[in-house]
Amino acid sequence: MDLTLHVWRQKSRDAEGQLVTYKAENISAEASFLEMLDVVNERLTEKGEDPIHFEHDCREGICGSCGMMINGVAHGPIGGTATCQLHMRNFNHGDEVVVEPWRARAFPVIKDLIVDRTPLDKIIQAGGYISVNTGSAVEANTLPIPKPVQDLSMDAAACIQCGACVAQCPNGAAQLFTAAKVSHLALLPQGQPERYERVVTMVEVMETYFGSCTLFRECEAVCPKEISTKFIERMNKDYLAAKFKALKESATG
Amino acid sequence: MTIQLDSKIPPGPLPQKWEFAKSHYKLVNPANKRKYDIIVVGAGLAGASAAATLGELGYNVKCFVYHDSPRRAHSIAAQGGINAAKNYRNDGDSVYRLFYDTIKGGDYRAREGNVHRLAELSVNIIDQAVAQGVPFAREYGGALENRSFGGVQVSRTFYARGQTGQQLLLGAFQALERQIALGTVKQYNRYEMLDLVVVDGHAKGIITRNLITGKIEAFAADAVVLGTGGYVNVFYLSTNAMASNATAIWRAHKRGATFANPCYTQIHPTCIPQSGDYQSKLTLMSESLRNDGRIWVPKAQGDKRSPKDIPEGERDYYLERKYPSFGNLAPRDIASRAAKEACDEGKGIGESGRGVYLDFADAIKRLGRPLIEERYGNLFEMYHDITAEDPYEVPMRIYPAPHYSMGGLWVDYNLMSNVPGLYVTGEANFSDHGANRLGASALMQGLADGYFVLPVTIGDYLATQFGKKVAPAHPAFAEAETAVRQRVTRLLEAKGTRSVDSYHKELGTIMWDYCGMARSAEGLKTALGLIRTLREKYWTDVRVLGGGEEPNQALEKAGRVADFFELGELMCIDALHREESAGGHFRVEHQTADGEAERNDDKFLYVAAWEHKGEGNEPVLHKEPLVYEEVKLATRSYK
């Protein structure tokens, strides 16, 4: 099939960017969206033009490196799919496709479709872990965890930190990402000792970089791992509980 | 400098060696630890677990990755599981059995001492991961669940849906982020290591390129740890991530570290077959699928009927037929070769004829669709996304693909290379899997190395280095920096006619055709000629657009492919010298009457460690004899 692409090209963080039109011709329906871009890049290289820069690595939908706005939708038209797992059979001959980098103030463009997602790591650094040093663990089966609890925790832990939730959100909020990590840990017995402290520190760091959540739920619609906004409710509940606990403790000294 | 390969296996009976070693290593006192700088390159399972644990111990750690975040490392893509000798199933598992299975699975080409330690530590890994919040699968009673993997008759594999690598890596990543927040680890994202700095024979630093600004910088340390993964992207099409490369270990090799068993590469039996020449990578379908899926081809050659129309009696479940006691769970090297054999006989399925069926119809009938969905749902979805076929309805089409490298930099029992101060962990070293790795053992080795081995053994070296810090002003740093700059410039200035990818593809085809699942002396000699010619052409004809002082993905790749040319050559030299078949290394001249690998223990019971002698010179072979104290050498049988 042949397509017309309008791709965002930007040389560096501070440079002006613009949409540039390219022809993607003779593309196999079995190719992935990134393989289609590979083909375009090979042809650009032949012509002596700088290839389109985009981030990618595992191409199995698990590393979270890739991601672009495809006709205005993070990761493109098929739900529950990262860009690398989006296949060209979902497009038609003659389609016009607009390809842009993640759109969010917290993610400045580095080059073309590559953005800087460092603030997501900062949220993890603020408490997205269980503080246990190597060597101090107890025997694994001394800690039975009901299967439904484990399953729910795993649903949250499936997040790949791609940033699509932020990119799609009209407010550029990172609630779904943060809530996924908060919930993964807060659901497990191992996560209890730091549960309330964790949610407060993570939310505070989140708020320094990202916009506020006003429940559009667009994040959920584009999440390649289909993580539910129910986890945001969970996080908010824990956050409130933590604040009340803190109030109570300061009142009783 | 003459190279002496001392494996430093501790004395005493096998089960007490690690205990003995731990009790006799030199220690660094807690107050002195912060005075030592350690560089960790790579933050997959082996790198992140090491960096985090070294940070917890109080060392000053600098961790370098070329990704935008340490969590992107390719360990994240491991699907099926991690082995541990917990014996939770009460099915007769033990540390000894895991040790024995791994030695046998590796076709008797691994060190007993290392493998026994790995089996011992496997249980600690599960404990540690659970404490970190890794959501392993559980039974309704709340206890941990297990499944089986290839080459084994017990169920000792722990898993988190089909995302075990992801969850274990997130555990290590989160431990690392905690240390970053605490200030014990300084994280350098989007930095690529391009050289090792050696001062008076000791590893004392690295040279990096900042992938955003292009700045080339030197970093000094008291020791350097490479946890930079494997090298099967030398085949171009593999299950590895696009950026996975050999540059860090290859640069270290060229600075004096010997490269061990480069020809031991693993071709994984269950991958989605290639569908076109635009294809950039191959996707693995987890070995865990072989718990419930049955592999077959039509009995008749060229049978192009739809699988549903081929009656039971006209199907050949060839693994079940040839290996009745292990059946579909035969080890990877054996299952891959059997698939190739079936396709070579003209029984392959799909348009290309390079494929076999992995069929779940029986399992769905027996267990019901919901249970199959729960076990493999995300894998089935991934298969469906890629092929547009529904594996609940039609059997999967699969074919072998390069997946893992058992070879790597030579290390002693302490994970130190022959360059003092240079440590190598995980897939980047050669140590534990012999000539073939069993499923669910890579995660185990990466984490054993990073959490439990290296943080203990590295003190033994550091204690000898007190007060011997080398400043980055030392001329060795400037020399290495200049070499890196010249190389980058050379690639940019070739200004040739063909893209980096086109060369990589061509190299990959040579490697796959002559150094893949079946190798012959004649083929390997042909490959050596082809690689040398292509490599020369590459340096004058490659086209890398853009500049060196900006993000430039083609330039990054160009350097990696240049190293793959040299590594590919060494793989062929090693494969040519090893006149036997062992595990993943199958020489067509050395096979039994029924087509199984034929080892030659009299001549090849050793680790082949190659020393680099300068570009254009033949590498020199050093042999570390393999000593078996416990296990009796036998012909591997899974029948």
Can you lay out the helices and strands and say which pair or pack?
The complex is a heterodimer of chains A (253) and B (639).
Chain A: E1 3-9, E2 18-24, H1 33-47, E3 69-70, E4 73-74, E5 96-100, E6 109-111, E7 114-115, H2 118-125, H3 147-157, H4 164-168, H5 175-186, H6 195-209, H7 218-222, H8 230-252
Parallel strand pairs in A: 1-5
Antiparallel strand pairs in A: 1-2, 3-4, 3-5, 6-7
Chain B: H1 17-24, H2 30-33, E1 37-41, H3 45-57, E2 60-64, E3 82-83, H4 95-105, H5 112-132, E4 157-158, H6 164-182, E5 185-188, E6 191-199, E7 202-210, E8 216-220, E9 223-226, H7 247-254, E10 259-260, E11 265-271, E12 294-298, E13 315-316, H8 318-322, H9 332-344, E14 356-359, H10 361-367, H11 369-387, E15 396-405, E16 408-409, E17 422-424, H12 442-462, H13 475-493, H14 500-515, H15 521-541, H16 553-577, H17 601-604, E18 606-611, E19 620-625
Parallel strand pairs in B: 1-2, 1-9, 2-5, 9-17
Antiparallel strand pairs in B: 3-4, 6-7, 7-8, 10-16, 10-18, 11-15, 12-13, 12-14, 14-15, 18-19
The proportion of residues forming helix of chain B, as a percent range, comes to 25-40%
| Number of helical segments with 4 or more residues of chain B | 17
Determine the CATH superfamily of the domain at 487-625 in chain B.
Fumarate reductase/succinate dehydrogenase flavoprotein-like, C-terminal domain
What is the average of the pLDDT values of chain A?
97
Bin the strand percentage of chain A: 5-15%
Helical content class of chain A: 25-40%
Shape call of chain A: elongated
- End-to-end C-alpha gap of chain B: 48 Å
Strand proportion of chain B: 5-15%
Radius of gyration of chain B: 24 Å
Task: Give the structural class of chain A.
Answer: alpha+beta
Please outline the major beta sheet of chain A: 5 strands, mixed
Q: What is the average of the pLDDT values of chain B?
A: 96
